[in-house]
Design goal:
54% helix; 117 residues; single chain
Amino acid sequence: MRDKANIVWLICDVVRDVIPDIEGKLGTLTCGENLFFKSKQFFERLRVERVFDRDELEGWRDFRSLVVDTFPEFKGEVFDNCLFLTPEEQMKVKDRLENLKVFLENIRLKNSEGGKK
């Protein structure tokens, strides 16, 4: 299991160029182990887009699903505040999340090899 507190911080850091005001935290009083992400800018954008043209929202996906696609061990533990992304933004975020996963896996492997010596 990955360190959830650090993973929230890392996820926010790697996607910040796509979602500039993203914030993340681990847990609340009632949901201690869940990962929460929010963006006021993206929430407001979605609200405005819904008002003007629903057809333009076709193909948009929520940030939560992209995180779970990359880190399936967090299924059911990731939440966002309607942080929906365009297909172009999804590609950028998915790429960054996949690179983060590879990076974390390489660190894990390096640490496990170091322990065997």
